[in-house]
Amino acid sequence: MIARLKPRLGLAELSASMRFWCQNAVQDFEKAFAKEAGQKFALAFPYGRTGLMLTLKALEFQNKEIICPAYTCVVVAHAIVKSGNRPVFVDCEKDSYNMDLEKAEAAITDNTAAIIATSLFGYPVNLDQLQAINRKHSQVRLIQDCAHSFMAQFNGVEVQKVGTAAIYGLNISKLMTSIFGGMITTDDEEFYRKLKNLRATSLRKSSIGRSFKRFIYLSAVSIAFWNPVYSFVNWLERLGWLKRFVNYYDESAIDMPADYLVIMSPLEARVGLVQLRKLRAIIDDRRRHAKLYIEALQNLKGLKLAPFREGATYSHFVIETETRDSLLQYCIKNGVQLGKLIEYSIPEMKAYVDYSRNPEAFKYAHHYKDRMINLPIWHSDNRSTFKIIDLMKSFKIWEGNKKNEAAPHNK
């Protein structure tokens, strides 16, 4: 079975996780990550959302409005609330997954402290527009959410380099992983020192027991995504037995993981260092597969694809369809698992109803949440891509035949 996602893990990561004598690994990982991002500083965190929460605190924002997308990972909003601030949601652009920056500018008030710009699914945010807003509203900080967009480029400029800070997530679903974890990069030395001091006083050290659990998790993930095993894992997931491992949010709760204030362990950093060396190759592979998908599927009736973008990193390859559930079922029967990553509009969630000024103002977020689906794009070879392309085409034929069978026949 072709899994919807699969971290590129191997013996090198397992070997690195067992080098217990490398106790400066977190600092080494931070330095290497900053160098790869082309920035002066990087700080590691247990989760990207922890890094965002402490970023807002280090900037001394309290009871402020933080503008963010309505259609993005809900943990962004959670981090804003947990930092003592209020999210202000903005809808997507038409025909784009990213936040409508004209609407974002219109949402700025005297109490607005920051804009969090997400390059969703690896599609780079419009930096020209973002910088124009910043020139007009210099008091509003720009924070780049790069959880899906490690080193994505807009007109040749990497998105993480525009703004006060950039946030990355490092769990197994991301472009690269440190098992769990997150990273903040910045060129602002004053902000870096404040954030580093805040991390030192807010987070506690990782225990040996926690590191051992991370090692067990890494080993389990490596086995679970092994092709001969994954069909069984998927069967367990469909039965609901793996819900606690795959569900990352509760519709009605604003919460954080139990260990969100425990600093990244050296074990995770060692794995991250190995993964960092693979990052550019991973991005190149995803861009290649994205081109193949677009060339083969762009004219397929019933599917809507975003155009290929040279600077996108394609953390996910998403398509829009009115028949999402049927397509999911058809593909799983034929050995391919598709994904539904963001199947919600945050302002419509129970936990955020009171934070929404006008729930009806998010029509594109509402539209996408019911129609977006992501095709596997993690593999390094082309064979899986061609199989998925053939499956998309055969689904349209199968769907057409079903409609013909259901239609009343003239007598």
Q: Within the CATH hierarchy, at the fold level, what is the topology of one domain? A: Aspartate Aminotransferase, domain 2
The low-confidence parts are none
Shape: globular
Report the end-to-end length measured between terminal Cα atoms. Answer: 44 Å
Order of SSEs: HHEHEHEHEHEEEEEHHHHHEEHHEH
Structural class: alpha/beta
What is the CA-atom radius of gyration, in angstroms?
21 Å
Please, could you describe this protein's structure?
With 411 residues, the chain is an alpha/beta fold. It has a domain at 11-208: Type I PLP-dependent aspartate aminotransferase-like (Major domain) (Aspartate Aminotransferase, domain 2, 3-Layer(aba) Sandwich). It contains 14 helices and twelve strands. The protein has helices at 11-17, 25-37, 48-58, 74-82, 101-106, 127-136, 189-202, 208-224, 227-238, 243-246, 266-297, 324-333, 363-369, 383-406; strands spanning 41-45, 65-69, 86-90, 112-118, 141-145, 153-154, 157-158, 165-169, 182-186, 303-305, 317-321, 372-375. It has a seven-stranded mixed sheet with strand order 1-9-8-5-4-2-3, with helices on both faces. Strands 10-11-12 form a three-stranded antiparallel sheet, with helices on one face. It has a two-stranded antiparallel ribbon with strand order 6-7. Strand 6 and strand 7 (157-158) form a beta hairpin. Helix 3 (48-58) packs across helix 7 (189-202). The protein is globular and about 60 Å long. The relative contact order is 0.17.
